[in-house]
Amino acid sequence: MKSTNINNITAVSSDRTFTTLTPLVISGVRVVVIWANGGEVFNEDLTECLLEQPAAEEAIQQIYDWVNEKHIAPTPAQAESLGWAAFATGKLAMSFDGPFMIALYQDVESFQWDVAPLPIGSAGRATTLHGLANVVFSETKHPEAAWKLAKYLSQDNAQKYLADNNIAIPALTVYSSDFFEKLPYGNGESCEEVFLNAVNYARMFPIAPHYNEWDTEYLRTMELVLLGQTTPARALPRLSQQITRIINKP
Fold first, then answer.
1. Contact predicate 12/18, CB 8 Å
2. How many CB atoms lie under 10 A from the CB of residue 4?
3. What is the structure's pLDDT at 83?
4. Cβ proximity of 150 and 132 under 8 Å
5. 119: which of 43, 97, 136, 199 is 20 to 30 A away, CA to CA?
6. Could you write out the three-class secondary structure of 92-147?
7. What is the pLDDT at residue 167?
């Protein structure tokens, strides 16, 4: 299901009204909203956190309002209870997902669903670019076998397997259409076009030094925000300073 205004869509059961967006505790969702609003998480050389800047703060405030004021997105506790299958079971009316969820949704028979591009923010559309990275550990005890496997995963048989089983959009474009062969069409574009066109406005997820450390602090603070225990205006300046210190450590 889709809507040009996320404030106007909810999923309703016989005993309660459920939320409309995928759980916003997920880092990638918040980053997309920040980018679409013209904000940034870091500066270009990854030495300064910019979450306290107006465009980023405005985006986080919007997410805060979705959860705590408009109640159209789940709180962290609700998100945990909903689980990953919330949209497939009709507990979410709209979900921010990538093609990696197609295999799950493909089996839904209780309602019709469709795919649409992400909403346009004040700075345009934005999304994160991920993928299946097949790497070999530099200190592996079996370099020849590891390299043989890595090469195999990039070849036709393996790429077609990824497509046919809706695991990931294959790197070999000759098989990209196979990934979408059984899927619905929507919003004037085929499902294939929606996802492949997203590459034109996609960006790599920001990975600054000491990722685990600063991401832990980021998630902890964002959870407090989504719980309504603090506001973006109070939390983000302190969080930005903390993350800036962490990423600049030796």
1. yes
2. 10
3. 74
4. no
5. 43
6. CCCCCCCHHHHHHHCCCCCCCCCCCCCCCECCECCEEECCCCCCCCCCCCCHHHHH
7. 85
| Token pair of 68 as six digits | 């705590």
Other Cβ atoms within 10 Å of 87 Cβ, number: 24
Per-residue pLDDT of 122-142, as tens digits, reads 999 999 988 778 889 999 999
Separation in Å, CA 32 to CA 96, 138, 175, 227: 10, 33, 28, 20
The model carries a pTM of 0.81
pLDDT at 78: 80
pLDDT digits (tens, 9 = 90+) for 142-168: 999 999 999 999 999 999 998 888 888
Task: Give the integer Cα–Cα distance in Å for 211 and 243.
Answer: 10
Which residues in the chain come in under a pLDDT of 50?
1-4, 9, 11-19, 23, 185-188
Cα of 28 vs its chain's centroid, Å: 4
Show the domains of the chain with their CATH numbers.
6-130+205-247 (3.40.190.10), 131-201 (no CATH)
**Structure-token pair, residue 237:** 């300046």
| Cα separations in angstroms, 71 against 68, 234, 248 | 6, 21, 37
pLDDT for residue 80: 78
Structure-token match 């004040």, residue found: 122
**Which phi and psi angles does 68 have, rounded to 5°?**
-100, -20
